[in-house]
Amino acid sequence: MKFSTSSLAIALGLVAAPAFAGGLAEPVADPVVPAAPVAVAPVVTGSDWTGGYVGAQLGYGQAETDDDPASFDEDGAIYGAQAGYNYDFGSFVLGGELDFTGTELGNDLTDIDGIARAKVRAGYDAGAFLPYLTAGYASAYTSEEIDGDDQFDGYLYGAGVDYAVSENIVVGAEVLQHEFEDVGAVDLDATTAAARVNYKF
Description:
This is Opacity protein. The chain is mainly beta.
């Protein structure tokens, strides 16, 4: 029996078809292994302001009498030292401070030799910064007696900000308004602005 060329081609195609059919199957993909979760470090938003401190201050002051400005209206340098303690409640910081500030405020009648202060401070823990409000008691000492007295009590209020340069060194600035009543026959107001540096324990 004789086969034609076309018959031979058809026969070869039928034999090869099963082999090619197996090659048309879709490849099996490798299983995807999920990546292990990465731990995220907690973000620290504040600093610990708890602790005692001591330091020094240097600045400028201005004082005048309310009732009779002509009797006392002077300005000059101020300088002093302070000691205090803060307690950090988280975002709120509460503290107390004692300081004594010498002054160069005076005229021909008398000088304000110094001002002693006892203050309460309430601030916000903003990390390295601590903005705060303060208020308390003040006592002014004069070089000459006025109506038989050389010490005059009053109160103060103001604001400031501290900045933690390092764990132990804190710098800052503070502005205070003082009110002294009955300094002789008049009331005395004093404003001070000072740069401060503290060593924190």
